[in-house]
Amino acid sequence: MFRQASRLLSRSVAAASSKSATSRAFSTELPSTIDSTFVEAWKKVAPNMDPPQTPSSFMKARPSTASSIPTKLTVNFVLPYASELSGKEVDMVIIPATTGQMGVLPGHVPTIAELKPGIMSVHEGTDVKKYFVSSGFAFLHANSVADIIAIEAVPLENIDPSQVQKGLAEFTQKLASAATDLEKAEAQIGVEVHSAINAALSG
Amino acid sequence: MASNAAVPFWRAAGMTYITYSNICANLVRNCLKEPFKAESINREKVHFSLSKWADGKAQKPVLRSDQPEV
């Protein structure tokens, strides 16, 4: 029985490797079905055991890349402790990338952008929702799905302006008196974050 | 290809991205209004005990906790 197993398994491995010898498809374009050849071979060898699950069987299939530009952008906005937006269809998001405010429309070129402290706005029809994002990343995929991850994202109304002014003054002073490189860097970060919040509140 | 553009100032000072990102997040949390500030600080509390092992025995544990001492 086990001699058969190695033959069956090596046959399915050979089939898989010949597929990978040709050009690879993007993960968004592969069909999300389980490999039936493997499942059949498994059932022949171990009919009483369930075939092993792969991580992709637990995930929902990704929307595939459409041939024409979709009308809506699907946004997944997550924080470590909560999922702010999950699969929400919107018209546009503006993200605070390190290279400047970036407007993302459906059909945007696939990009990975590092975010700086700033305002992220989600535009849906006439609705605009703004969050102040502390830092994070935005992954824009070819299939008009945007995955935005941040550590802290707060609506602007939840920010206390007096605390911001206090913080800005404190860190500007720390920057002037900083000694080591690390202290300077920390003070610089403080100044940048507080200035960004200030600009966000007044802008 | 030439190496990437100028490193960010925090990287140049020896800080990692995670440290930078956590500092930014903490600063933002500090600027919140109550009760959001209390909620967020509560959410970020940690409690863990770490012990290095040597010769198959655990050494003295290092406790890091935001819980008040009982």
| Succession of helices and strands of chain A | HHHEEEEEEEEEEHH
CATH superfamily of the largest domain in chain A: F0F1 ATP synthase delta/epsilon subunit, N-terminal
Strand percentage of chain B: 15-25%
Spatial gap, N to C terminus of chain B: 58 Å
- The gyration radius over C-alpha positions of chain A equals 24 Å
Structural class label of chain B: alpha+beta
The coarse overall form of chain A would be: elongated
Radius of gyration of chain B: 19 Å
Derived from helix and strand composition plus strand pairing, the structural class of chain A reads alpha+beta
Element string of chain B (H = helix, E = strand)? HHHEEEE
Structural domain tally of chain B: 1
Oligomer: heterodimer
Estimate percent helicity of chain A: 25-40%
Largest sheet of chain B: 2 strands, antiparallel
Spatial strand arrangement across the major sheet of chain B:
1-4
**Overall 3D geometry of chain B?**
flat
GO molecular function (chain A): proton-transporting ATP synthase activity, rotational mechanism
Subunit structure (chain A): F-type ATPases have 2 components, CF(1) - the catalytic core - and CF(0) - the membrane proton channel. CF(1) has five subunits: alpha(3), beta(3), gamma(1), delta(1), epsilon(1). CF(0) has three main subunits: a, b and c.
Organism (chain A): Microthlaspi erraticum
Protein name (chain A): ATP synthase subunit delta', mitochondrial
